[in-house]
Specification:
The complex is a heterotetramer of chains A (305), B (379), C (327) and D (251). Chain C is an all-alpha fold. Chain C is built from 13 helices and two strands. In chain D, the strands form two sheets. In chain D, strands 6-7-8-3-9-10 form a six-stranded mixed β-sheet, with helices on both faces. Chain D has a four-stranded antiparallel β-sheet with strand order 2-1-4-5, with helices on one face. Chain D folds into two domains: 165 residues, Rossmann fold; 76 residues, no CATH class. Classes of the chains: A mainly alpha (305), B alpha/beta (379), C mainly alpha (327), D alpha/beta (251). Chains in contact: A-B, A-C, B-C, C-D. Chains A and B meet through α1, α4, α5, α10 and α11 of A and α1, β8, α7, α8 and α9 of B. Chain C: Keywords: Cell membrane, Membrane, Transmembrane, Transmembrane helix.
Chain lengths: 305, 379, 327, 251
């Protein structure tokens, strides 16, 4: 395999990882602050993508579509937080898993009811379409580079938010000790709604960005959700740094595993069976990675407790 | 999910067949298809096509059930339709894996099964049954035709891609069976994968002149959008499944110029097809897909047999079905001895008609195409 | 007699009563539904041993359900095609005998549970939920991409497997088999909960430190519970495959794990008959709501949400009230 | 001279910069009650965890009945005969009171991998559980849910569970807390008699009980044992008065 191809694949893995981070950041924040497992996070990703596709269809503007995705996902997040999620904070994980599993069913079929069963159209804006030439003669899609840029920017924003702002201080206080923030005179329920809406908005943004190069359809959030869970478990639940490291790790493992494993198996197997066995192992690779990490660090790479 | 559609007011002329019914001859049809969850669009089209063709036939009673694309649900619905509803004929399954579960269960209980979409190789060969008729295609047909067309049209080096599951690997095997050129790369992706950046990079790095792929549903949409954005300059070919009307709307301009093989296209020039396309648009307000065409043909076939024999007489009804005496929207249509179609497979190209992205026939890829599994079929 | 005991008797009687009425009315499909409920309840009873007694929230029980299913599918498909499963180092033939298939399903899923449990039980809380989910997904992707046994297409078995003295293709007789097993397992699970093992396991769920202090190892208790739980769910998987005469990777999907968990929750966590109530209710809903709307999952979701939020303790908890500690 | 049943030698434990246990050496002789006292935050709970096996020591050794158990965890130490009660009641709250003591009896008996016979019909275990309840005076509460017990009753149940283990050594973390005057007086009498069965390492805030019961007292301040001796010696010890009792008098 040529160096150029390898670099391109690493970029692909990075882009995938950055996208996962947008999902995982919300999940891990919500878990860290509120102690909640939210299986419905993938539905918020889907809400973002559908809102973006709908608005792009009406107005033709990708920028407006992104704004709509953020707004719709944040609103949907705030709504379910107020109606359902806040009743789950002091429940055990089992109730949380079940209730948010129920939310997935409602969101998926509700979206299908609203938008029909066919995938929607959402395209990359003309200005970002097509490839550009990178140093070293690598031809790479501009839009994917933009995704990497936006993702890293958002990551920096989230780190800044947590480290430097008032709400960040409150979030960190909440992670350390939930009773503490009440003692500090912070309106907990407002903080929770805000954190939840923030996580939802990040998921919605991811859905809209990815929707432009993938298929906007019902159920699109579930595979991403499971990967995002793998990410935060690897990184250590509640840790933003862990989410970032985990995302990149999973993105690279998944991309490079799919590329490198089949030829690797080809070195000691028949070509035809190597392709399918290699692909089979590649599709299991991130789960193997996760199990491996948990065996040596049962609470993830950056897990505190 | 249960829609009991009892259709009244027969109008034989409306069927364009112009024949008289045999006396009595009522038939109860059970349709099990995918109406909810992922892939529901395909089942809805098959249902709508079937209902359109059967409209006005009071001898045909239709019971529709939703399999949710789950094999276990499909098998249970089969039992239900046979045991409780006492249907005579089953139809509707979209997916090969569900067909593999339902068809043996139906024929083992002595019921006819007309497949409006899936055609797994096992059911065309060793597992064939006198009661099983495939009105769509054997799974390999579009791929074999694609390989033939590519060989005859100066394509030398292809890169193959499909999901790593049986329909995917079988399809690529079908292509390789008829393709004379060189396969320079072959990638099997994870089922349900949505990001194809890694594969596109491999395609770019290869010296293939053409990418031939099969990625059904959302996978194909994702791939095409990403491929168009990558600036890789290679021909794209595939079976019709990734370029059907329901999907083209979501891909948009990115699909323009793609060649795909199909047994049907809305511009096939015959009276039955013109009527079908016009009626379908009038009834449902959207362009028909090939799934709708298959549903429509299935109902036409069934009604042609109902005109000739009583379903209670299985041998006679089977013989009537074998004649395939109906005006298919595909033009010429006949059954091979293994009850799978002998039909022309066309090459289509994705074009833009006004604002609508759609398909246009550019030639015949394989005329009177027939599958290779019939030799194993002993019935 | 407590209200729960009375309720349990009613619940226990519902399935065979439904099947018998359907038999009298010649409605074989209703019998098939009752059979499905009995088998899914069995899977739930399996999960409930880990979840209810042991407090182990496993989101990967589809792994065992699927393994049981594939034990049936692989053995029966080899018997169907008269090809041996393995020739070297010694010959293993396929089989159509339910008893042998059940044995293989139980042993396979127990061994898998031993391996998965030994690794997963090193973690707790969310990590445990997620690592079990990951193991389930691993098997799911493996089953899809492994071509030997049908991959995504799954395996079709044309005729149901054999049970001595019974015609298994007759719905009512197959129901009798499934319900018989459910009854035996319910009895066993009830005894287990009250036996030494159950006392210690349940104590480990309530307070692991306490159990350690009296000199017992929570890890060992949980691992054994996980193995028993996996084996029961695997047996249910084999029966489910026989009900459908078909297996596919769907049995391994995380939705299956979620659904088994839904049976347990709908009925009531930790209640012996909870999964029976939950599975019966689920099947009932699937067929009544399914008849009302294409979008019945919305209603199922709403109902599930209401149960979790407002009817804690599930169906049995709502009707029978707080559980009294067993004597 | 007889050998000590429990012997701590130069135990250390730090949490970051904080030295929670600082070179602690202690012994517990057969038949004695050895009380461990000290102000809040002196490191008593940390030390108890190190002895019981829930917390690994940075250095030093724990010997139990002549055997080095430093490397062992909670379970093997419990099986070796260390009967511990918790400062904050640690019981199976959904169970009845009797079930909690039967659990203890089961732990002592071993043989937990039995899946069929109802444990509450196992005469031997139930009798042992009832006997323990009788000794602490909880017989009437046997069928009650543990969660419904008062705080004081839970403390007694803690002791009862420890009794079912028939340990060689008792490790009791504030058993008097929340008992009230008459309750602690009764428990004091009970512990007084218990030392014949097995010696007790007693962490306690109730000074009346400590001075009434303890054969020896060790004073822990900032993780260090600043003095060990009889009640009279401790009362007279100037460093103790300054570091501990003085502080209490002032308060």
């Amino acid at each position: 395999m040529s160096m150029i191809l390898l670099i391109e694949q690493v970029l692909n893995g990075l882009q995938f990882g950055v996208m996962l981070f947008l999902m995982a950041a919300g999940l891990t924040l919500i878990f860290g602050v509120m102690g909640l497992i939210n299986l419905a996070h993938g539905s918020l990703y889907m809400v973002g993508a559908f809102a973006a596709a709908a608005v792009a269809g009406w107005t033709g503007s990708f920028a407006l579509a992104l704004v709509a995705a953020l707004a719709a996902a944040a609103a949907a997040g705030a709504l379910i937080e107020l109606l359902v999620i806040r009743r789950l904070y002091d429940r055990d994980h089992l109730d949380q898993v079940l209730a948010t599993f129920a939310l997935i069913l409602i969101f998926s079929e509700g979206t299908r009811w609203l938008f029909g069963s066919f995938p929607l159209f959402l395209d990359v804006p003309a200005a970002l379409a097509g490839p550009i030439m990178l140093p070293g003669g690598i031809l790479y899609p501009l839009y994917r580079l933009v995704i990497i840029g936006v993702g890293l920017l958002v990551a920096a924003g989230v780190f800044w938010l947590i480290a430097k702002t008032r709400i960040g201080i409150q979030i960190r206080a909440g992670e350390a000790d939930r009773e503490m923030i009440a003692a500090l005179g912070i309106d907990i329920s407002r903080l929770y709604t805000m954190v939840f809406a923030l996580g939802a908005a990040l998921a919605g943004l991811a859905g809209a960005l990815v929707g432009a190069i993938q298929s906007v359809q019902v159920g699109m959030g579930e595979p991403v959700l499971i990967l995002a869970f793998v990410v935060i478990v690897i990184g250590g639940i509640g840790s933003i740094k862990g989410a970032l490291v985990g995302s990149i790790l999973v993105g690279l493992t998944d991309t490079l595993g799919g590329v490198l494993l089949p030829p690797l198996f080809g070195t000691f197997m028949q070509a035809s069976s190597a392709t399918s066995v290699g692909s089979a192992v590649a599709s299991m690779s991130i789960y193997i990675l996760m199990v491996g990490v948990l065996l040596f660090k049962p609470s993830g790479l950056f897990g505190g407790k | 999910m249960k829609l009991r559609t009892l259709i009244a007011a027969a109008s034989i002329a409306a069927l364009g067949a112009g024949m008289a019914y045999a006396d009595g001859g009522k038939v109860k049809v059970g349709m099990i298809t995918t109406l909810s969850g992922g892939g529901a669009g395909l089942g809805i089209d098959v249902r709508d096509g079937f209902v359109l063709a059967a409209k006005g036939n009071e001898n045909l009673e239709l019971v529709i059930e939703d399999d949710q694309r789950k094999p276990d649900v499909a098998v249970q619905l089969t039992d239900k339709l046979i045991q409780s509803e006492k249907v005579d004929v089953l139809t509707g399954i979209i997916w090969s894996n569900l067909a593999m579960a339902v068809v043996p269960a139906a024929t083992a209980q002595g019921k006819f099964y007309l497949s409006p979409n899936a055609g797994p190789s096992a059911l065309a060969g060793k597992g064939c049954s006198p009661l099983y008729f495939n009105v769509a295609w054997q799974n390999d047909a579009f791929y074999e035709a694609g390989g033939l067309w590519a060989s005859e049209n100066g394509i030398e080096k292809v890169f193959l891609m499909a999901p790593n599951y049986p329909a995917g690997t079988d399809g690529m095997t079908g292509f390789k069976r008829t393709f004379k050129g060189e396969v320079v790369g072959e990638v099997y992706t994870k089922l349900g994968q949505t990001d194809y950046a890694a594969e596109i990079a491999q395609i770019r790095a290869s010296d293939a002149d053409t990418v031939y792929f099969f990625l059904p549903g959302g996978m194909g949409i994702s791939f095409m959008k990403q491929f168009a954005g990558s600036g890789v300059d290679k021909n794209v070919m595939g079976p019709a499944f990734s370029f059907d009307q329901g999907i083209l709307g979501a891909i948009g301009d990115a699909a323009l110029g793609v060649k795909n093989t199909s047994h049907w296209s809305k511009d096939i020039d015959n009276a039955a097809n013109k009527k079908f396309v016009a009626d379908f648009q009038a009834e449902y307000g959207r362009l028909p897909s090939l799934y709708a065409a298959q549903g429509y043909d299935t109902a036409l076939l069934l009604q042609s047999a109902m005109g000739k024999a009583d379903v209670a007489d299985a041998a006679a009804f089977q013989a009537a079905l074998e004649e395939a005496d109906f005006a298919s929207v595909r033009g010429d249509f006949a059954f091979a001895p293994n009850h799978h179609p002998i039909q022309d497979i066309y090459m289509r190209e994705v074009i833009k008609e006004g604002d609508v992205v759609t398909n246009k026939i550019v030639g015949v890829a394989s005329s009177d195409h027939q599958d290779v599994y019939g030799a194993d079929c002993k019935m | 007699m407590t209200r729960e005991t009375l309720l349990n008797i009613v619940l226990f009687a519902i399935l065979p009563a439904t099947a018998l009425v359907a038999f009298a009315l010649d409605e074989p499909f209703i019998i098939t539904l009752a059979t499905k409920a009995a088998i899914l309840a069995l899977a739930g009873v399996g999960l409930n041993i880990a979840l209810g007694l042991g407090g182990l929230v496993s989101l990967g029980h589809a792994a065992f359900f699927g393994l049981g299913g594939y034990a049936m599918g692989i053995l029966a498909s080899h018997a169907q095609s008269y090809t041996p499963l393995m020739e070297t180092p010694f010959l293993i033939e396929g089989t159509k005998s339910m008893l042998v298939i059940w044995g293989v399903a139980i042993v396979t899923s127990a061994l898998a549970a031993l391996a998965i449990g030994a690794l997963s039980l090193r973690t707790t809380g969310v990590y445990f939920i997620m690592i079990t989910l990951a193991f389930g997904q691993m098997l799911y992707y493996f089953a899809i991409s492994w071509p030997a046994y049908g991959g995504e297409d799954g395996l079709s078995i044309y005729v149901r497997n054999e049970f001595p003295g019974l015609n298994t293709l007759d719905p009512i007789q197959f129901f009798a088999i499934a319900f018989g097993i459910l009854a035996i397992v319910l009895f066993g699970a009830g005894r287990l909960a009250k036996a030494r093992f159950g006392l210690a396991l349940s104590a480990a769920r309530q307070n692991a430190e306490r159990v350690e202090t009296v000199g017992l190892t929570p890890f060992r208790l949980r691992l054994v519970a996980f193995v028993i739980s996996g084996a029961v769910t695997g047996l249910a998987g084999a029966l489910f495959a026989d009900l459908n005469r078909f297996v596919s990777p769907t049995m391994f999907s995380w939705h299956t794990s979620g659904e088994i968990m839904v049976f347990v929750i709908l009925g009531g966590v930790g209640r012996l008959f909870g999964p029976v109530a939950g599975a019966a209710l689920y099947i009932l809903l699937e067929h009544t709501l399914g008849g009302l709307s294409e979008f019945w999952h919305v209603y199922l979701g709403l109902l599930l949400l209401l149960v979790v939020l407002f009817a804690r303790g599930g169906l049995i908890g709502t009707i029978a009230g707080r559980e009294v500690a067993h004597d | 001279m007889t050998d000590p049943l429990l012997k701590l030698s130069h135990l250390n434990k730090s949490f970051g910069a904080l030295k929670a246990t600082d070179d602690v050496s202690l012994t517990l002789m057969p038949g004695e009650i050895h009380a461990l006292i000290g102000p809040n935050g002196a490191g008593k709970s940390t030390l108890i965890k190190q002895i019981a096996g829930g917390l690994r020591s940075d250095s030093g050794t724990v010997e139990f009945a002549g055997r080095d158990v430093t490397a062992l965890g909670t379970v093997p130490r419990a099986r070796a005969g260390l009967g511990r009660t918790f400062q904050i009641s640690s019981l199976a709250m959904e169970y009845t009171v009797l079930q909690n003591t039967v659990l203890g009896a089961l732990g002592h008996d071993g043989g937990v991998m039995r899946f069929f016979r109802p444990v509450m019909k196992d005469r031997r275990l139930v009798d042992r559980g009832m006997a323990a309840l009788e000794r602490v005076g909880l017989t009437d509460q046997a069928a009650k849910r543990t969660a419904d017990l008062s705080h004081g009753q839970r403390r007694l149940l803690e002791v009862a569970v420890a009794l079912t283990l028939e340990p060689k050594v008792f490790l009791m973390d504030e058993p008097m807390a929340g008992l009230g005057a008459s309750g602690s007086k009764r428990l004091t009498g009970f512990l007084d008699a218990l030392r014949v069965q097995a010696p007790i390492l007693l962490v306690e805030h109730d000074m009346d009980a400590v001075f009434a019961l303890a054969d020896r007292i060790s004073v822990l301040v900032y993780g260090r044992v600043i003095a060990t001796g009889t009640a009279d010696e401790i009362k007279r010890d100037p460093t103790v008065r300054e570091a501990y009792l003085g502080a209490e008098d002032a308060a």
